[in-house]
Design brief:
The protein is mostly helical. It has 4 helices and no strands. The chain is extended and about 50 Å long.
Length: about 100
């Protein structure tokens, strides 16, 4: 059992790490986007922010739906579909590697 202080500390560390990685990836992406997407209001930074926010919202809805199905088996209900999504993403990346290469 983890106490509230350890839980809050761990959550802050995890959140900080994720945010650091996200800003690093956004910086890398800004260096390889076409110049047509780097102009105006709807630039690559805004698009990356919208995609990230949408991903978080869908993830939160998925966690909520799995929790409503069974709170007791929540870990299995999250890990098994997550593993399937990771494997599917790796398959798509491998299949389209040449077209995604920068």
């Amino acid at each position: 059992s983890v106490g509230p202080v350890k839980y809050i500390t761990g959550s802050l560390i995890a959140f900080s790490g994720i945010e650091c990685c996200e800003s690093f990836l956004a910086s890398l992406m800004s260096k390889c986007v076409p110049s047509a997407l780097a102009v105006g209001t709807f630039n690559s930074g805004l698009l990356a922010t919208l995609v990230g926010t949408s991903g978080r919202a869908v993830g939160d809805l998925f966690i909520t739906a799995m929790g409503l199905i069974s709170i007791r088996h929540l870990l299995n209900l999250l890990i098994i579909p997550g593993l399937g999504l990771v494997l599917f993403s790796m398959f798509l990346l491998r299949r389209n590697y040449k077209s995604l290469a920068v």
